[in-house]
Design goal:
Helix 14 crosses helix 15 and helix 16 packs antiparallel against helix 17. It is globular, with a radius of gyration of 25 Å. It is an alpha+beta fold and 596 residues long. The strands form 8 sheets. It has a 6-stranded mixed beta sheet with strand order 4-3-2-1-5-6, with helices on both faces. The protein has a 6-stranded mixed beta sheet with strand order 12-11-10-8-13-14. Strands 21-28-27-24 form a 4-stranded antiparallel beta sheet. It has 19 helices and 28 strands. The model has no long low-confidence stretch (mean pLDDT 95).
Length: 596
Amino acid sequence: MANERLQGLRRLMEENGIDIYYVPSSDFHDSEYPDRFFGCRRFLSGFTGSAGTVVVTRDFAGLWTDGRYFVQAKKELSGQEIRLMKMGAEDVPTIEEFIETHIPENGVLGFDGRVVNAAAGRRFERLLEKKQATLSVGLDLVGTLWLDRPVLEPPRLWLLEEHIAGESLMSKAKRLRMAMQKTGATAHILTSLDDVAWLFNIRKEADAAGNLLPPAYALITEESLRIFIDSRAVSEEIFAYFAKNGVRVEAYEAVYEAVKGLRSERILLEPEKVNFALQRGIDASNTIVEQRNPTSEMKAVKNPVEQENMRRAHVKDGVALWRFICWLKEQEDPITEAEAAVRLEEFRKEQEGYLCPSFGTISAYGANAAMCHYHAKKGQDAKIGREGFYLVDSGGQYLEGTTDVTRTIAMGPLSEEMRLHYTLVLMGHLRLSAARFLYGCPGQNLDILARSALWKYGLDFNHGTGHGVGFLSNVHERPNNIRWKQPQGGVPSCVLEEGMITSNEPGLYIEGSHGIRIETLLLCKKAKKNEYGQFMEFETLTFVPIDTEAIDSSVMEPSDIELLNAYHKEVYEKLSPYLAGRELEKLFEATRPIGL
């Protein structure tokens, strides 16, 4: 089927004079969880991972994806003409290098300019100049082939009340305008969904992916606040809220004409987020100020109300996940990975204020866990056995905030190698949680703490150690992260500020055998200040026992064991008031101190 679709695309390329066609995974806002409507890359290739790009020429087709998906992509592309291009691997060109090499003189590169950001679009323009080649950005060729494409439904909006958000729309708009003034900007185009939702304190009813962010654009000046959104999503209550705050509501598609109408302004925009079609419409009389959206840093630093709400959300989530772990280990009859994910969701639904998953649950047993972002499909998933590891990476959206947690669970006998691997991952996890560092350090400086135990044994994991986490928003949030190796075109490490929430999730993946990951969320806060400067540290937000049955304590340092025991003491204190009976007894056993 995928090869037939590829042939259909090539026919359309021939008809439209296009030599290379570029199919990314993104939507009009370059958001993390695009609607099913934007699944063109998946439709064309069959690859179901969240990150990847297909590039098609008249005689070649390749899927570029990163290390999280190498195992999965290899499996899903089996039997296809589309070749897996492992990003970062030796002798694998970048997409831009490939296009530059393969575009013919006076050739044409095509893509839908609404799903490619302005920074990427401009890079393509520059590299094409060398061969006098041109861009064709007005055709959605894969969409033309996709006859049963899902319809974009209008989102149902709801307001994030100030007692939850901790700051009003007008306060946020005032801060944003002050940031604009510092750059000399008189207008600001804001298109990233998490930034728009944060600024206006709006969310939408969750979709199947747990996405709470409504599709919308914003245009901000000193005199006006304009939001471009499907009016079918706006209730009378929200219209009144916008009117009270001086917000002008306009049709979603009207943003293109609104931007074309700007004249002699200094326009602040982030090229990596504004789509190429929108940026191309800006009149030449304007001056463009390029920098990251100021709201990115603003929302990454959680205010005191958000911090306290996140603490509450994580206690609820810890109770739900612990009840799930108890249930899982007590099952006598085998259950499947998909069934386990459904049961975990049921435990979360029992918690007051629970809204939806924060992302699709990764429920993976045995070798499936070696696929870093594996997703179990009902009818195609594995049964969870009584040996080896089961990995569950999941999270919830609560009225109090967003969670993201991974635990690897021993389901029965483990090999010595499995115990060693688990313990090395755990050691890195504990050492990063206990980090104390001088203010000014980016996350890049801390990654060695999570990897040193693995590196000592010649082992590593091919993904970042930590990402920022939003508040009732993206589970992966800019700009904070923890990773020593910055991906091409990715978000560089920023200084870790007080109030930022970052994940701590080292792992290890042995293809065909097992996968291990342990993840908690960390809140950055100030520690002591002395003559050397302001020291920073982390407060742990996630409270779920770590499976001690999988530990080989002989390879741990005494300090590692002290950290684990201290963590488990706090886990018991946080969760025990909400548990009873067998679940409480098991919590006591699971959090008991271990020795050397």
